[in-house]
Amino acid sequence: MRAAVLTEFGAPLTVQEMPDPVAGGGEVVVEVLASSVAPYAGEVFGGRRNYPLEPPVVPGLGGVGRVVSAGPDATRLRVGDLVWCDCTVRSRDDALTPDITLQGWSSRGEGGARLARYLHDGAYAELMRVPTENVYPLPAEAADDPARWCSVGVYTIPYGGLLAGGLEAGETLLVSGATGNLGSAAVAVALAMGAGRVITPGRNRAALGLLADRFGRRVRPVELTGDEDTDRTAMSAAAEGPVDMVIDLLPPAAPSSVTRAAAMTVREYGRVVLMGGVGMLGGADLALPYPWIMRNSVTVRGQWMYPRSASVGMIRLLASRALDLGPERVRAFPLDAVNDAVAYAAAHGGPFDRTVLTPPAG
User: Fold this and answer.
1) Total structural domains in the chain?
2) Containing structural domain, residue 70
3) Contact 63, 38 (CB under 8 A)
């Protein structure tokens, strides 16, 4: 098979011939039809994000494909099935606190690194080997546009955060980082889940306008000034009532003050879910006042990625059209143009912009 390989951090990816993967017990081999290219992929491959990838490696965050072969313990998957391959892989020998790796992308701790060395390669290839439990059947309609259905991976991340925070129908949600790629996805998912209104702070007027135009009166844009107190007051006013939940999806370069201003709009007994990258590249960490958390009985929790059930839920939301993929702006690149795709993704990382590799085998 052919695959795009990161030979060393800072070097362009190179398309090479590699041995075809073989499914063992508990594994599936999939022909990759489409795989998303994250807007920050160039930062990962350049080493700026300090991700624990071990080159040489085939990167890539999951994708849409067709089953080529499956191990003997697969009871329902069949060769030719159209599937979503989830990159979030969990170890099978600890049900309470499993080690996690994002196949072909990142990992957590030494256990996650060991898992990554076994499931080393990701989706930027014609074929990939995936754990059986990470393969999810897609509706037949996804075959008409696999590149568009790669958005499953983008939407499932904030969906995991909204599930963690227990978002309920009719509630008011504030999305910190709403004008970004993942933040805008959180807005769409929250509304599909029945949020009554969504507060969308940001500095990008065009992106704020796009969110308001797409979703209408349930979205309340707030243009940020950079002054923490002023912005907190403006976000609270836009809610026209209590903010039930805040989810933060800001990137590593964002100052912690922006996350703090958003978090402290939440009501008494409200919930704050942290999914972004604040502090990952140095700089000030998030400092929420102890008395404010305690006296207001605020729940603050972190969430990395999502539970396994989230992929099923997201596919159902998309198949039912509760969440519409139609407005996605999708740009597809062949495998040979992988470096062009990485550059394009970096320049087109706004709301509902998707960059996709389409490397089907010949």
Assistant:
1) 2
2) 2-153+323-357
3) no
CATH of the domain at 121: 3.90.180.10
Query: Phi and psi of 153, rounded to 5°?
Result: -65, -35
Give the CATH number for residue 263: 3.40.50.720
Question: What CA–CA distance (Å, rounded) separates 7 from 4?
Answer: 9
**DSSP label of 124:** S
The distance from CA 362 to its chain's CA centroid, rounded to whole angstroms, is: 29
In this structure, are 177 and 222 located in the same domain?
Answer: yes
- Give yes or no: residues 181 and 137 share one domain: no
Q: What is the pLDDT of residues 278-299, one digit of tens each?
A: 988 888 889 999 999 999 999 9
Q: Does residue 307 have a cis bond before it (omega within 30 degrees)?
A: no
Burial state string for 321-338 with b = 16 or more CB within 10 A and e = fewer than 16: eebebeebebebbebebb
pLDDT in tens, 51-100: 999 999 999 999 999 999 998 889 999 999 999 999 999 999 999 999 99
pTM of the predicted model as reported, rounded to 2 decimal places:
0.95
